[in-house]
Specification:
Layout lengths: L1 E12 L2 E12 L3 E5 L6 H9 L6 E6 L8 H5 L2 E3 L12 H9 L8 H7 L15 H13 L5 E5 L7 H16 L3 E5 L3 H7 L2 E6 L2 E6 L1 H7 L10 H10 L3
Parallel strand pairs: 3-7, 3-8, 5-6, 6-7
Antiparallel strand pairs: 1-2, 1-4, 8-9
Helix pairs in contact: 8-9
Length: 242
């Protein structure tokens, strides 16, 4: 069953067409990746899913709901990664979780969420004192504290060291395993390959490919490369002048 359906999505900013006729669906229980170069339309697409942007044409549905017209209802089911810059430096971990849980009618137990993301021993630590990996874990916790059915993560591991990235990947898998559908926007092809069931590859606002990571590699034409990687395949798809 599709929990997110996007059909013929179009979004312009003045003369710039950020997203042009993009269509795809996200199935229940998937980790669905959106990849492509800067300016490909990745963030605009997920902002339309979140209800932060209104499409110029086309439709977006989250669990059958319109994210703009039924934003309050969608908000009950959709968890969104908070950008770290939006949190006050002095706000403690437990205070942030307690505050954000108060925004939802049926929140998860924030103490349980805090333990699940591995921040129990940092409950009294101010946000400004957290490491990069700990801040990212808190952003994940804040996306989950509303007890969502779908969670959206945009550039989740940017700036993290290798161990923190792997720890975050394990956390994302555990979230999916308990029934949360995930949309993951990423620049990292190793991350997309390890985590995602399917990928939408965007190029200049258009859908260049939609398949499993293995399918994208198998179907890509990469001249001069005998055994292309996912990165090779995505580069070939997004650099294609057609």
């Amino acid at each position: 069953m599709a929990v997110i359906e996007i059909a013929n999505l179009m979004k312009r900013y003045g003369e710039l067409t950020a997203v042009a006729d993009v269509s795809f669906s996200v199935e229940d229980g998937e980790i669905f990746g959106i990849v492509g170069p800067n300016g490909a339309g990745k963030t605009t697409t997920v902002e339309c899913v979140e209800g932060m942007r209104a499409p110029d044409s086309g439709t977006v549905r989250v669990l059958g709901l319109d994210p703009r017209r039924e934003r309050a209802a969608v908000r009950r089911y959709l968890g969104i990664q908070l950008q770290s810059s939006e949190l006050p430096a002095r706000l403690k971990v437990w205070e942030a979780l307690d505050l954000y849980s108060s925004f939802y009618p049926e929140p998860a137990d924030w103490k349980r969420v805090m333990a699940e993301v591995g921040l129990e021993d940092k409950r009294n630590t101010a946000f400004g004192k957290l490491s990069g990996g700990q801040k990212q874990r808190l952003s994940i916790a804040l996306a989950l504290v509303g007890n969502p059915r779908v969670a959206v993560f945009d550039e989740l591991t940017t700036g993290l060291d290798p161990q923190s990235r792997r720890d975050t990947w394990a956390l994302i898998r555990s979230i999916r395993d308990r029934g949360v559908t995930i949309i993951l926007v990423s620049h990292f092809m190793d991350e997309a390959e390890r985590l995602c069931d399917r990928l939408a590859v965007l190029r200049a606002g258009r859908l260049a490919a939609l398949d499993t990571p293995a399918g994208i590699v198998a179907n890509a034409s990469v001249p001069g490369v005998d055994r292309p990687t996912l990165e090779d395949a995505v580069l070939a798809l997004t650099n294609d002048p057609r």
